[in-house]
Design goal:
By secondary structure, the chain is an all-beta fold. Helix content is 0%, strand content 53%. Strands 2, 4, 6, 8, 9, 11, 13, 15, 16, 18, 19, 21 and 22 form a 13-stranded parallel beta sheet that branches.
């Protein structure tokens, strides 16, 4: 009913129940617990170690400072990861080595803030990706593979930005890619191998 605020600390969610939302600032998070629980990560220098379990929702939130969450190695997200902001500060998810296999949900949320969202790493989407606010892909040579569901909301965009600095390979291998907004890939490769594409990618 009050607050749990941890700074430069470690929170291991291994089991039991968590009621309320712990705030982790510049901290390390790991999860194996499967009972639904939500965690808020703010500020620079946050880490995710290991996989994100099906019970975990991680909100990466730009606030008074930009929010960076770094996964030092490839991992699987079976839970929910959300990029959001309440200010002009960005929210960013970085995979240092390899990428994220998403079997759960990865999404960006509209909010009162104007800060930008970015993802740095490879992405193998087998679950659901929902872009409610534009997302920049900012790793040179990244590989994005979709066999799940990717939906880009009206007026929003997935783009490798800034332009040719970050060429990507996008493999549409199955599932659905629904572009109600825009998918802009510059100096990149788009492989249409399967599934459905609704809307028109800009290459």
């Amino acid at each position: 009913n009050g607050s749990l605020i941890l700074s430069s600390s470690t929170f291991n969610y291994n089991g039991g129940t968590v009621t309320g939302v712990p705030l982790l600032y510049s901290s390390t998070f790991s999860s194996t617990g499967t009972t639904p629980a939500t965690f808020l990560m703010r500020g620079p220098g946050n880490d995710i170690t290991g996989n994100v379990s099906s019970g975990s929702t991680i909100r990466i939130q730009g606030d008074t400072a930009a929010a960076d969450v770094i996964a030092p190695a490839a991992f699987t997200n079976a839970g929910t990861i959300i990029l959001e902001t309440t200010s002009a500060q960005w929210a960013r998810l970085v995979v240092t080595t390899g990428g994220m296999t998403n079997t759960g949900t990865f999404k960006t949320e509209t909010s009162a803030g104007s800060g930008l969202f970015s993802f740095i790493g490879n992405l193998d989407n087998q679950g659901t990706v929902t872009i409610n606010k534009s997302l920049d892909l900012t790793k040179s040579g990244a590989v994005i593979t979709n066999t799940g569901t990717i939906t880009i909301a009206t007026g929003q965009v997935i783009r490798n930005n800034p332009l040719s600095t970050y060429p990507q390979t996008f493999n549409q291998n199955g599932g659905s890619l629904t572009i109600n907004g825009s998918l802009n890939l510059f100096s990149s490769t788009f492989n249409y191998n399967g599934g459905t594409v609704t809307g028109v990618p800009l290459l």
